């Protein structure tokens, strides 16, 4: 028995591969996971997490929509996220140094207690 089936598939607008994982927020082009790495820019929707409200822009829209309020908001969040990561790294380095100093002082105190 033969059966005719009409099937709708998603195709990446960049490489024509089936299975789409994202859509450009600006123009609506479908972008597969591999092409997202090379043909798109992803903007997180939050400073501390990512998820379903992240913005995904193909390079053309990323350049074209610099004055779009939504695009600017995404860019601001990404900038703040980078700033926060840098600040956290700086605090971690200083904390590690302070913790190492405390460990050394405690070891020295132990040695003195033992009479070494």
In short:
It contains three helices and four strands; from the N terminus they run ββαββαα. The protein is mainly α and 116 residues long.
Q: Please, could you describe this protein's structure?
A:
This protein is mainly α and 116 residues long. It contains three helices and four strands; from the N terminus they run E-E-H-E-E-H-H. The chain has helices at 33-39, 59-64, 69-114, and strands spanning 22-23, 30-31, 40-43, 55-58. Strands 1-2 form a two-stranded antiparallel sheet. A hairpin with a 6-residue loop joins strand 1 (22-23) and strand 2 (30-31). The relative contact order is 0.10. The mean pLDDT is 90.
List the helices and strands and how they pair.
Elements: E1 22-23, E2 30-31, H1 33-39, E3 40-43, E4 55-58, H2 59-64, H3 69-114
Antiparallel strand pairs: 1-2, 3-4
E-strand count? 4
Structural class: mainly alpha
> Measured on Cα atoms, how large is the radius of gyration?
25 Å
| CA distance, first residue to last residue | 92 Å
The total count of helices amounts to 3
Biggest sheet overview: 2 strands, antiparallel
Oligomeric nature of the chains: single chain
Mean pLDDT, to the nearest integer, reads 90
Strand ordering within the main sheet: 1-2
Residues in helix, %: 40-55%
The percentage of residues in β strands lies in 5-15%
Record keyword descriptors for this entry.
single chain; two-stranded antiparallel sheet; mainly alpha; 116 residues; 3 helices
């Amino acid at each position: 028995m033969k059966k005719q089936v009409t099937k709708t598939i998603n195709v990446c607008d960049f490489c024509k591969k089936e299975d789409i994982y994202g859509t450009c927020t600006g123009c609506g082009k479908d972008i597969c996971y591999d092409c997202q790495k090379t043909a798109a820019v992803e903007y997180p929707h939050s400073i501390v997490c990512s998820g379903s409200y992240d913005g995904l822009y193909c390079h053309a829209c990323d350049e074209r929509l610099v004055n779009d309020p939504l695009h600017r908001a995404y860019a601001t969040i990404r900038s703040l996220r980078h700033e926060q990561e840098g600040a956290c790294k700086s605090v971690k380095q200083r904390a590690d140094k302070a913790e190492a100093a405390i460990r050394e002082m405690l070891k020295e105190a132990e040695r003195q207690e033992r009479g070494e």
